[in-house]
Design goal:
By secondary structure, the chain is of the alpha/beta class. The mean pLDDT is 87. α1 packs across α5 and α2 runs parallel beside α3. It starts with a strand and ends with a helix. The chain has seven helices and 15 strands. The strands form four sheets. A five-stranded parallel sheet has the order 2-1-3-4-5. A five-stranded antiparallel sheet has the order 10-9-8-12-11. It has a three-stranded antiparallel sheet with strand order 13-14-15, with no helix packed on it.
Length: 244
């Protein structure tokens, strides 16, 4: 079940957005995906109370709200529901730069709702589908079915490679990095070094000195000959997520 919620202290806009989302769910969702849109929330506190008992997969979140603003709610919600995909919604475009700290999926401008919402909706559904993509790996512990979204990176060593999970768990497999690269290349993975294939979703920062930092603070060097292609790949990734 795909649960979608809207949090905005403006009841009129919240109703408008919810109505458009219901229409998009009916028109754009694949048949295999069930969708539930919650009643709208008027405050961050209401969202947190609901999220304690019910999972929210996608949250359209206003930033400029009294008491608990959207940024504060995003920070608190990550503790309660880390898998919730947040899309910030605001009438103030200057907020877009401040919003990156909270790792939103996208930023939606209220003044451009008609043209931006269908694109945003399409992209977030693509992400939700990817979040559920799995792949079978023959590990030294036996056959494992792993969610691609949960993989931080693959690290190769001779005829073996290690799968590093976001949870901290690791799996060791027999095989080459070329075979890994071939299997995951159609997803948001990139081979930045002969020994590393990284999940672009979990990159925390990229540095001009020739390395990147993953969200678990692991530092990975980027091969000089891979740098240009990697930057282009990551730019395309961010455009798919943030570009209008």
């Amino acid at each position: 079940m795909l649960t979608i919620a809207v949090c905005d202290d403006n009841p009129q806009f919240a109703h408008q957005l919810t109505t458009r989302l219901r229409r998009l769910c009916a028109l754009q969702l694949p048949d295999r995906i069930d969708c539930h849109i919650t009643p709208t929330f008027g405050s961050g506190e209401d969202v947190l109370r609901y999220a304690q008992e019910h999972p929210i997969k996608i949250l359209f979140l206003d930033i400029d709200m009294p008491q608990m603003n959207g940024f504060c709610l995003a920070a608190e919600l990550k503790k309660v529901s880390p898998d919730t995909v947040i899309i910030f919604v605001s009438a103030y475009e200057d907020f877009v730069y401040s919003s990156f700290e909270y790792a939103p999926f996208r930023f939606l401008r209220k003044s451009h709702l008609e043209e931006e919402l269908p694109i945003t909706f399409e992209k977030v559904i693509e992400k939700c589908i990817f979040d559920n993509e799995t792949m079978i790996f023959e590990t030294t512990e036996g056959e494992m079915i792993l969610k691609l979204q949960d993989i931080l990176y693959f690290e190769g060593e001779k005829n073996y490679y290690t799968i590093k999970m976001f949870s901290g768990k690791t799996y060791r497999c027999r095989g080459t990095m070329s075979s890994v690269e071939e299997r995951v290349s159609k997803y948001d993975f990139f081979r930045v070094h002969s020994a590393f294939v990284v999940n672009e979703e979990h990159i925390q920062s990229i540095h001009n000195e020739g390395y990147l930092k993953m969200k678990n603070d692991v530092v990975i060097n980027i091969s000089r000959r891979k740098m240009q292609a990697f930057r282009e790949s990551y730019m395309q990734f961010t455009r798919r997520r943030f570009a209008r």
